[in-house]
Design a protein that fits this description.
- It is a single chain.
- It is built from 15 helices and ten strands.
- The protein is an alpha+beta fold and about 400 residues long.
- Strands 1, 2, 3, 4, 5, 6, 7, 8, 9 and 10 form a ten-stranded mixed sheet that branches.
- Helix 8 links the parallel strand 5 and strand 6.
- The longest helix has 25 residues.
């Protein structure tokens, strides 16, 4: 009976959009002169290394060698470390990037169908995180002496708490420049949340022209003058006014009016100042909207705790980006499984179980301790915590 159950690795890989994978790989001709080491095989090796949480290529090859009798059942061919390294270093990261976005579509469709989420207006949070690299071997990522990092700029859809866009750059690329690559697919009237590192008056004017609502914090150097004061109806709101920039340079970059809100946070005993182009929401709602940006900080924490993105097998830019893309695909797959099965286990617990049972013939539901009967009787999934744009204050 156990022989009729596929290995857990096969079950996980069934969620990967293989047809789309082959389509993109064929369009880019990534399998040309691959010496039998196809793009799919490269993905399998990286994916298994991510699930097993290995520290080196040597360790991965050693594990696969001990599991040589099972490799056939999980569609893996044996190759040398040198062939694997050469393949990943030359492989275009665009293939794995598009696979991630295709899987994201499936997960978002699942979330929306369960939650019946038909919101016309979406809320996005944008931020970046630094990943440190080993000195002297990642020459392409250098910026200053003793600083060898890459930046992962990410856009999080607050509606379903899923990262829907990711751009990998060198450390020296400023946030205010990289944000333009994260504006794809954002529609008019959507809400964009970002911290003051992204604050650039040309960017704000660009968003204003696109009818995109932005909420961010001001800098100490932000000089403005009030034109009209709004009525304050909330005890924590200290200031609410329609303003415009004072300096000629700032006014040339942003010649329109904007709104300044100051909100007092009791827990930190501190006043925060926000700038936005929304003149309709209550002032306290502007502060609560910006507070939702913290979800992307939680995302970075989960990624660094549960995925292998702080230690890389190779030093080339292609290889590093390929490893990050596969890691993000695995993270998305974990989220998809949690959504489909309503599993209560944390991501850390799931990664530990999958790493131990990856090559075993076991049902996925048994791994997360859930029965088919229980799965049918589960309540509807609860949407991730977020602020409603139409809630009453």
């Amino acid at each position: 009976m156990d022989n009729q159950i596929a290995p857990l690795c096969n079950t996980l890989l069934k969620y990967i959009p293989r047809n789309h994978f082959n389509k993109i790989s064929g369009q880019l001709k990534t399998d040309k002169r691959s010496k039998g080491f196809s793009t799919w095989q490269a993905f399998l090796w990286l994916f298994i290394g991510q699930v097993l949480n290995v520290d080196s290529i040597r360790e991965l090859c050693c594990i696969l060698e001990t599991r040589s009798t099972t490799l056939y059942h999980i569609w893996i061919k044996k190759f040398s470390r040198s062939n694997f390294s050469e393949r990943i270093n030359k492989l275009n990261p665009y293939v794995f990037q598009q696979v991630f976005y295709k899987l994201l579509e499936q997960v978002q469709y699942e979330v929306n169908s369960i939650n019946k989420n038909n919101m016309l207006q979406k809320i996005y949070a944008i931020d970046s995180t630094l990943i440190s690299l080993t000195l002297s071997v990642f020459n392409w990522a250098t910026y200053r002496k003793k600083k060898w990092w890459i930046k992962v700029h990410t856009r999080l859809d607050i509606t379903d708490a899923l990262p829907d866009l990711m751009v990998i750059t060198e450390w020296k690329v400023h946030d205010s420049k990289a944000i333009y690559d994260l504006l794809s697919w954002i529609k008019s009237w959507d809400v964009l949340l970002f911290d003051r590192w992204y604050l650039d008056y040309k960017l704000l004017y660009h968003l204003e022209e696109k009818w995109i609502t932005y909420v961010t914090r001001t800098k100490k150097s932000t000089n403005f003058c009030p034109i009209e004061y709004n009525e304050i109806t909330h005890p924590k709101v200290q200031y609410d006014a329609i303003c415009e920039f004072v300096s000629v340079d700032s006014y040339e970059k942003y010649p329109k009016k904007f709104r300044i809100v100051r909100y007092y946070v009791e827990e930190k005993e501190k006043e925060y100042e926000y700038i936005t182009n929304n003149f309709d929401y209550p002032a306290e709602m502007i502060a609560e909207l910006y507070k939702q940006r913290w979800q992307i900080e939680e995302l970075f924490r989960r990624l660094k705790q549960n995925l292998k993105i702080k230690q890389f097998f190779w030093t080339s830019r292609n290889a590093v980006e390929n490893q990050i893309r596969v890691a993000m695909t695995y993270y998305l797959l974990l989220q998809y499984i949690k959504i489909k099965t309503r599993a209560k286990e944390s991501l850390l617990e799931l990664t530990r179980r999958f790493s131990v049972l990856l090559f075993d013939r076991i049902n996925l539901l048994n791994v997360i301790n859930i029965t088919t009967k229980k799965l049918k009787n589960l309540p509807k999934i609860v949407a991730p915590p977020q602020i409603s744009l139409f809630s009453d204050f």
